[in-house]
Design a protein that fits this description.
- The chain folds into three domains: about 100 residues, no CATH class; about 280 residues, 2-Layer Sandwich (Beta-Lactamase), CATH 3.30.450.20; about 150 residues, 2-Layer Sandwich (Alpha-Beta Plaits).
- It is built from 15 helices and 18 strands.
- Strands 1, 2, 3, 4, 5 and 6 form a six-stranded antiparallel beta sheet that branches.
- Helix 15 links the parallel strand 17 and strand 18.
- About 0% of the residues have low confidence.
């Protein structure tokens, strides 16, 4: 250290040399107080950490399993009753007569749906898969030949797994939460007097009816407080609740003979979990299971509260031990005080720090020698620190720039469709809102084209999804090549695209752009598929529009008109 002569450093080495035979501070304090503290902590820890938690976990697990079994039984009974109801309805004399288009048949279906609000749709189909009659007139004359419920119910009664709406998605009002509509299907063959199948009776039940059964059964059950109730399918994917739909669950089957188990879930938390099979005894086993889980820290909270009380007692005991240690160690404190003074002298860079000899305690002598070594390396370390600090600012600037670029890239990806490279639905919503505000404030009208690839599901079913993806990419490219630089195009969802034509209120111009897009798509063949077509709905802003979604709604209605008129055409919403 600067300012300390070599003679003084030599004397410091001599003063700090360990003295043989010095008593150990650890041996004087640990022997008396360590054994007492260790005994207390081990005794309390063993009880709280093993016996008490084990008993609390067992009690909570048993109660949770019993309550979950009751909920599972209620759900199983409801599913079985719905299957029996559809089966008995299919055996009614009206249907067995084979006159499926009789008005009495429709009346019977409508009454059934009116009484049982859980049904979203009930209909009868002939043996060719054509809907003959259905509640609300929905899907009448449409083919359901390829639907699993129809194909299976030609031979036997059918109960299907939960699925999103396919044919009914755009015919029924959406879910208030914005979640996609989901149904559970039941179907049964309609057998005529001669024993031959004359048709199929099918029904779609709202998934909300299933979840409502669970919520009603759970409500008020003390054993399920602060407990998550999950419905899991045979592939270990969550069907309910909606916020976890599609996520996978770990193996929740309890080990050995227990009805519960502590399991580490993918969210990083440990849960007390119990699994019950939903044994609906339907003709086809749905394979559903009901899983109840409660965070382990919540399930064992009373024990943790007890641990806190024991901790308080431990603190009081520690204070008593500290008082005893103080009296016994007081005569040994002088060397420690001297060592602390020497440390302050090193910190303040005094010329000759006074280190204790440490003859009473061996550890003091060793520490004194170590501090002397640290003093010699202090200046060298400070110089290294100064060099590091000189480069720190440049490193911070470099990392900041990299972070800024990364954030910009993330913002771009958040607004871009990953398949086609076009703007995504989120970006379109922003542009649509901006265009609508500009229309209202400055009178800058615009047109909106909603484009849907015709028979796209057939492309996927026939050629596979990779070919379907290439179709979407080509359509996206053709749209981009056919528009002005100021026009905006985005993928609206699935096989739908949306085009915003700013400063365009002329009917003829808008129709021309739409027809140009339609013709370009129809003229460009796609490998493995051939020529594809698209239907386009067109709408133009109106002075009476209150929000931009009215414009989208008119374009959507016009698109359906184009579809209904035979596809591969442009339909414009009336002015």
């Amino acid at each position: 250290m600067d300012g300390i002569p070599n003679e003084d450093i030599k004397r410091m080495h001599e003063q700090s040399a360990p003295t043989s035979g010095a008593a150990s501070l650890r041996s004087r304090l640990t022997l008396w107080f360590g054994s007492l503290a260790l005994f207390t902590l081990l005794s309390a820890g063993f009880y709280v950490g093993h016996i008490a938690i084990e008993k609390m976990t067992a009690a909570e697990g048993a109660a949770m399993h019993a309550s979950a079994a009751t909920v599972a039984n209620a759900l199983a009974t409801g599913l079985r009753e719905r299957e029996d109801e559809i089966y008995l309805l299919s055996r009614s004399s009206r249907l067995a007569s084979g006159n499926l288009d009789a008005v009495e048949v429709l009346q019977s279906l409508e009454r059934r749906k009116e009484v049982h609000q859980e049904y979203a749709w009930i209909g009868v189909a002939d043996t060719d898969g054509t809907i003959v009659q259905a509640t609300g007139g929905m899907l009448v004359a449409q083919s359901v030949r390829e639907r699993p419920w129809f194909k299976s119910a030609l031979k036997e009664r059918y109960a299907g797994d939960v699925h999103e709406a396919v044919l009914l998605a755009k015919l029924l009002p959406g879910h208030p939460s914005g979640e996609p509509l989901r149904f559970v299907d039941f179907a049964a063959p309609i057998v005529g007097a001669n024993g031959q199948t004359v048709g199929v009776l099918g029904a779609h039940l709202h998934w909300s009816w299933v979840t409502g059964l669970v919520e009603d059964a759970v409500s008020g059950r003390r054993g399920l407080q602060q407990t998550d109730i999950l419905i899991v399918d045979r592939t270990n994917h969550i069907l309910y609740p909606e916020r976890l739909t599609g996520e996978s669950v770990p193996d929740t089957s309890p080990a050995q003979h227990l009805d519960y188990e502590v399991i580490h879930w993918p969210d990083g938390r440990d849960y007390l979990s119990s699994e019950v099979k939903i044994n609906a005894k339907t003709h086809a086993d749905l394979g559903w299971r009901l899983v109840a889980r409660k965070p382990l820290d919540i399930a064992t909270r009373p024990i943790r509260d007890l641990s806190g009380q024991l901790l308080l007692l431990g603190v009081l005991a520690a204070l008593l031990f500290a008082l005893l240690a103080y009296h016994l160690a007081r005569r040994l404190s002088r060397p420690i005080e001297q060592l602390a003074q020497a440390a302050r002298q090193v910190e303040s860079r005094q010329a000759m720090p006074q280190f204790p000899t440490g003859r009473q305690v061996r550890e003091i002598a060793q520490l004194s020698q170590s501090m002397q070594s640290m003093t010699r390396s202090l200046l060298a370390k400070e110089q290294e620190l100064a060099a590091i600090n000189s480069t720190l600012e440049a490193t911070v600037i470099e990392r900041t720039q990299a972070l800024t670029e990364a954030n910009a890239e993330l913002a771009r990806l958040a607004a871009q469709d990953g398949l086609t490279g076009l703007a995504n639905r989120r970006r379109f919503d922003e542009r649509l809102t901006d265009a609508f505000l500009a229309c209202k404030r400055y009178g800058r009208d615009f047109s909106l084209l909603l484009l849907d690839v015709d028979h796209f599901k057939q492309v996927n079913d026939t050629h596979g999804h990779p070919v379907g993806d290439r179709v979407l990419k080509q359509v996206a490219k053709l749209i981009g090549e056919s528009l002005r630089a100021t026009d905006f195009v985005a993928r609206y969802g699935g096989e739908e695209f949306v085009v915003l034509l700013p400063d365009t209120s002329d009917r003829t111009t808008s129709l021309g752009v739409a027809e140009k897009l339609r013709a370009a798509i129809a003229a460009a063949p796609v490998a493995e598929v051939g020529h594809i077509t698209a239907s386009i709905g067109l709408s133009i802003t109106r002075a009476a529009d209150q929000d931009p979604w009215q414009i989208v709604g008119r374009a959507d209605a016009a698109l359906y008109q184009a579809k209904a008129a035979g596809r591969n055409r442009v339909s414009m919403a009336p002015d």
